[in-house]
């Protein structure tokens, strides 16, 4: 499992991305929270309020999740970083993994439906 972090300038943008990514089953869970970020951008010191989108995803979903984040993002160079989860509540990790199994099963059912439609 990975924890993926990205930041957005507006709460609504972060919440829309969270909802989209969850509905598309690219992540098991998403959280949005405000932060104050300090960084150098184009040679200038910047301090601004941003909104972190934290996603809990399976390793195999990372590339699709990153691509989707980029498609939803207004920043030209968004922070998208991932941390590997080495430990955690067994029950929570099992729940998060189960979501990936459900997603795989739904894809299988959809593929069967398309085959039988012809």
Specify the CATH class.
Alpha Beta
Question: Could you say how many structural domains there are in total?
Answer: 1
The tally of beta strands, per DSSP, is 4
Category from helices, strands and their pairing? alpha+beta
- The arrangement of helices and strands along the chain is EHEEHEH
**Main beta-sheet strand count, sense and barrel state:** 4 strands, antiparallel
**Average pLDDT, all residues:** 87
The assigned CATH architecture is 2-Layer Sandwich
CATH overall fold name: Alpha-Beta Plaits
What is the 3D shape? globular
Task: Tell me the span between the first and last alpha carbons.
Answer: 37 Å
Q: What oligomeric state do the depicted chains represent?
A: single chain
Q: Which regions have little confidence, pLDDT < 50, spanning 5+ residues?
A: none
User: What count of helical segments does DSSP give?
Assistant: 3
User: What radius of gyration results from the CA coordinates?
Assistant: 17 Å
Strand order of the largest sheet: 2-3-1-4
Strand content: 25-35%
Provide a compact summary of the structure.
The protein has helices at 11-23, 62-72, 90-117, and strands spanning 2-8, 29-41, 44-57, 80-84. It has 118 residues and is of the alpha+beta class. Helix 1 (11-23) packs antiparallel against helix 2.
Topology of this structure?
Elements: E1 2-8, H1 11-23, E2 29-41, E3 44-57, H2 62-72, E4 80-84, H3 90-117
Helix pairs in contact: 1-2
Notes on the protein architecture:
By secondary structure, the protein is of the alpha+beta class. It has one domain (2-117): Alpha-Beta Plaits (2-Layer Sandwich). It has helices at 11-23, 62-72, 90-117; strands spanning 2-8, 29-41, 44-57, 80-84. The longest helix has 28 residues, at 90-117. The mean pLDDT is 87.
